[in-house]
C-alpha cells in the first residue's frame, strides 16, 4: 500500500530560494511535498532586513492571509518560513505568532526561528557560531532570541545584506568561504539564518570541511516542519540534521 505523502505548507516573504525546497522534495522521492504561498512583507527604503520592516513582516494577519491560499491542500503542517520575521520580537512573540497562525488556519504551525531553537537543542548545541546575511543590528535580535532558549552565540559574522533578494543571489562558493571565517573554536554548530539564502547544495560539504553540524534556515525549516506534522522522512546528502536527526521520533 502506498504511503500518503507528507504535505508541508511553506509561507515566506519574497522568494528566490524555492530550488532548495524542491531539491528536498526530490531527494525524499516525493514522500514529502511542499506547497508555497508568498506573504506581504515590510520594507524601509527598500530594505526588508531592517528591524522596523521585519516587525511589519511578522504580522500574523499577513501570514495567515497567505496561508489561507493553501486551504485546498490537506496540509500536515505549516511553517512560517522566515527567520527574521519570526525572531524579531523575541521568544514569546515567536511562540504566540505560531499559535496565532495555527488558530487562524487549523493547521499545526511552526516557524524557522522556533525550528532553529529546536534543532540546536536536538543537537545539544548550546554554544554556536553564527553566519548571518543580515545587517549587524538585525543580527543582534537573533542573538538575543537564541539566548532566550539558552543558546549562546560565541561568535557571529554579518554579511550586511539589507534584503533577502540579495541573499538569494549569494552563491555556494562564497558561502563556503564566509562560513569558514565565521566559525570559532569550541563551538558546537554553525547557524546560518535567512530562508532566502540557498544552502542545501553545500551544507553537506560544509559540514565535512568544518567538522561540525551546520544548521541552515532551509534545513531547520524542513526538519521542524516534518516534526510538527508528527512524521519525519530522513534524507541523506543534505546535512546531519535532515539525515541522522531526521530519524528522531517526532516531538
Automatic annotation (TrEMBL):
Output the InterPro entries linked to this UniProt entry. Answer: Iso_Racemase_Enz_sf, MaiA/AMDase
List the Pfam families hit by this protein, alphabetically.
Answer: Amdase
Protein name in UniProt: Maleate cis-trans isomerase
Supply the source organism for this entry.
Answer: Nitratireductor arenosus
Amino acid at each position: 500500500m502506498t504511503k500518503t505523502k507528507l504535505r508541508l505548507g511553506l509561507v515566506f516573504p519574497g522568494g528566490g530560494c524555492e530550488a532548495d525546497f524542491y531539491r528536498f522534495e526530490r531527494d525524499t522521492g516525493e514522500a514529502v511535498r511542499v506547497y508555497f504561498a508568498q506573504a506581504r512583507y515590510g520594507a524601509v527604503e527598500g530594505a526588508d532586513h531592517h528591524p522596523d520592516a521585519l516587525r511589519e513582516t511578522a504580522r500574523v494577519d499577513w501570514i495567515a492571509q497567505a496561508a489561507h491560499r493553501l486551504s485546498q491542500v490537506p496540509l500536515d503542517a505549516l511553517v512560517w518560513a522566515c527567520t527574521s520575521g519570526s525572531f524579531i520580537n523575541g521568544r514569546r512573540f515567536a511562540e504566540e505568532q505560531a499559535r496565532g497562525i495555527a488558530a487562524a488556519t487549523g493547521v499545526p504551525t511552526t516557524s524557522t526561528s522556533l525550528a532553529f531553537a529546536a534543532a540546536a537543542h536536538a543537537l545539544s548545541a548550546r554554544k554556536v557560531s553564527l553566519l548571518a546575511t543580515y545587517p549587524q543590528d538585525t543580527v543582534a535580535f537573533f542573538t538575543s532570541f537564541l539566548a532566550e532558549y539558552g543558546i549562546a552565540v560565541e561568535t557571529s559574522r554579518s554579511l550586511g545584506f539589507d534584503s533577502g533578494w540579495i541573499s538569494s543571489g549569494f552563491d555556494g562558493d562564497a558561502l563556503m568561504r564566509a562560513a569558514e571565517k565565521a566559525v570559532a573554536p569550541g563551538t558546537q554548530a554553525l547557524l546560518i539564518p535567512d530562508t532566502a539564502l540557498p544552502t542545501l547544495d553545500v551544507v553537506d560539504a560544509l559540514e565535512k570541511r568544518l567538522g561540525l553540524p551546520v544548521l541552515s534556515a532551509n534545513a531547520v525549516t524542513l526538519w521542524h516542519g516534518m516534526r510538527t506534522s508528527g512524521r519525519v522522512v530522513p534524507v541523506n546528502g543534505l546535512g546531519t540534521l535532515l539525515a541522522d536527526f531526521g530519524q528522531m521520533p517526532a516531538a
